Amino acid sequence: MLAGCGAAVVAVGAAAPGASAAGGPETDLAYHGSAALSGGRVDLLLTPHNHGASAVPDSTVRLRWSEPLADRQVLPEGCARAAERTVTCRVGALEADRAGEPVGLQVRLRGVPSEVLLELDTVADGGVADGGVEDGGVEDGGRGDGPQRVLVLDTGDTYYF
To answer: Among candidates 116, 115, 123, 121, which has minimal Cα distance to 135?
Structure first.
């Protein structure tokens, strides 16, 4: 399996539990689920998890694909096409240290690639700092938790993350 994710929150110094070093509330959002690719169609099921000490009043996940999406997509309520390779889905409020509601969708790719790389990241989290230390990315405003990445091969097999 070529998929994986991990995240941790480390409290150092005088920071209070549930607060970031800057003094605001802190979360650690991650997405767990499965993806399968077959003939240019991806079936995706994900569940958002807030592994942090503070609740998130509202959140949105961005799903970016390494291959362009087909022009026409039928997306579930709460999801919208954001760009040629991007879909966003509202995942809503997340309690501290709890899972949210599952989001399931099916997307069609423009072609029939042998593999597709999916990147998942949070684009709106209700103004709460994400304290994850996943992979040191700076694309997320310097928070250091970068997108989760899942490589899905066109085998029809389910890849878990």
So the answer is: 121
